[in-house]
Amino acid sequence: MDTRTDDTLLLAQALRQHPVLGRLEAAARDALLPRLQVLHCARHQVVATGATLTQRLHLLAAGEVAFEAEAPDAHTPPLLLTAPDWFGAGVQAPGQGGWQVVASSQAVVACLGLEELAALQQAQPWLLLFMQPLAASPPPLEAADPHLNLMTTPVRALLQRQPVTVSPHTPIRAVAELMREQRVSSVMLVERDHLFGLVTDRDLRNRALAAGLDPALPVLEIATVAPMTIDVHAPGFEALLLMARHNIHHVPVVDGTRVLGMVTATDVTEQHSTSAVYLAGDIHRQTTLAGLVAAAGKVRALQKHLSAAGASAYSTGYIVTAITDALTVRLLHLAEMQLGPAPVAFAWVAAGSQARHEQTAKSDQDNALVLDDAFDEAAHGAYFAQLARFVCDGLAACGYVYCPGEMMAMNPRWRLPRRQWAELFRQWVDTPDPTALMLTCTFFDARAIAGRPELLDSLRQHTLQGTRGNGLFLAHLASNALSRQPPLGLFGGLATLRSGEHKGTLNLKHSGIVPVIDLARIYALAAGHPAVNTHDRLAHAAESGEISPQGVRDLRDALEHLSLVRIRHQSRQIAAGHDADNYLRPDELSNFERSQLKDAFGVVKSLQDVLAQRYRMN
């Protein structure tokens, strides 16, 4: 008898024995069985928390679980439940947060989604004597998006079972038999509590069977050694990002050096066309520009789903940017397939919003090439000119418009050996004229996407040593930043654009978000801190003495609010079939929302005033 049959018998018995669900007629119980999702939980595994607790009804079919306060104290002891019992949606009312359900022993839990539960209540009205009523209509499609829970769910809540591990010396055949027996798609190679590697079913197929290897060889022969891992306390969306960026589908979960389990792509997201992991994998499989263009067209839907799922602006920026990174890397691969391998080492560098992980569905491209100092224009120039043109043209075809200022790698000005970049950066810091300040705002926000990242990293480290505490440079940079003011009128009202195509609107990007980016950049350069993302720069800003801890909190909240308003505005445009832009009409907002927007602009203005006083500028 296989595991699925065992589960069906166990659930049927639990339904019969449950004090409430046992009242259902036999036919109703039988109809309910195939709708239940079964979880096999190890002892101490988090079964449900946050949205996973309140948006599904859980039937405890075997074992014990305990309700534990997420911030426990002496007054909140655990509440123990024993099979057959139930918890979650309809039983524990949505909105009663601060709790998590942890398996006290090995347990089997069956889950029923809100839509199915509402239908069951409608068909069996007497259940409302024992449960809270739920809306009969199903939630909108966007609300069911898997990203909903990933923003708040820790990785530990995604673990479905105890880790399946083998010794690196285990024969390949024995590992395949174990994977079949345990019904898993991967195992981890562990010895003396140290993670050596990872083997997936794909490795067994491609590296062992297809290659004709002797199945008696040790499994280490086909393993991915030193695999990427994720900390058990990290949020779920970080696992999604790791998979999306590197086109992997299995990530070991660790607590320090101890292996706790494995998360897979199916654990963090469903396989639908707007999943970031699915999109990144789809991009990696494309062999033509037309295929990449089709994949890139799904970014708009991805942003719309993230917005509907309540994702933060910070998370949305990271996820959307991960897709841009994947497109860039794949275009580089396709270029090298045409042109051959690069003659000297290089780093493909993203600048601006892509470097900061702050892209939305409306983004242009800013990029550059840092070449090894062995670069010779006569011998290598034509290759890198073709490489850069291929990638930049490809990004443009995918919807990332050319930079109006031509700050792209296909411009020979921004395709230079490292020593020339170092000289440029030194000149911009030592002679901060208006052109230098404009270029600083673009290229001091930089991140290596592919190639040799150390070419850029060493360059940035050297540059940050020159900006730290450099009062003259920082004063010029502050003066340039203060030229962009939030759109507030004389008496604190919203000041819309007075003329042009977008008359009567607010430019959320250039008048709201960019001033915050400028402030955060100054704080980071003043402290010599290497962070590039604006939220991350602000998190460390108080260390430089440029801003108070309270100012940091206020500015981060203002940035998150302004970014969310922008994302929601763009999502409404996308849903209506229009192109996304940054121009918001205040009448799209309620009075309350306009008040919040004015408060956010006010925070930015007050911090600009502090900066002006610090550098004695008007």
As residue ranges, the low-confidence spans are 93-97, 135-149, 270-274
The proportion of strand residues reads 15-25%
Instruction: Indicate how many domains the architecture comprises.
Output: 4
CATH class of the largest domain: Mainly Beta
Rounded to the nearest angstrom, the distance between the terminal CA atoms is 80 Å
The strand order across the widest sheet is 1-8-3-6
Helical fraction: 40-55%
Overall spatial form: globular
CATH topology of the largest domain: Jelly Rolls
Number of helices: 23
By secondary-structure content and strand pairing, the structural class works out as alpha+beta
Compute the number of strand runs. Answer: 21
Description:
The protein has 618 residues and is an alpha+beta fold. It folds into 4 domains: 3-139, Jelly Rolls, CATH 2.60.120; 158-267, CBS-domain, CATH 3.10.580; 329-460, 2-Layer Sandwich (Beta Polymerase, domain 2), CATH 3.30.460.10; 479-614. The chain is 45% helix and 16% strand. It contains 23 helices and 21 strands. The strands form 6 sheets. A 4-stranded antiparallel sheet has the order 1-8-3-6. α8 (236-246) packs parallel to α13 (313-339). The longest helix has 27 residues, at 313-339. It is globular, with a radius of gyration of 27 Å. The termini are far apart. Mean pLDDT is 85; it is low at 93-97, 135-149 and 270-274.
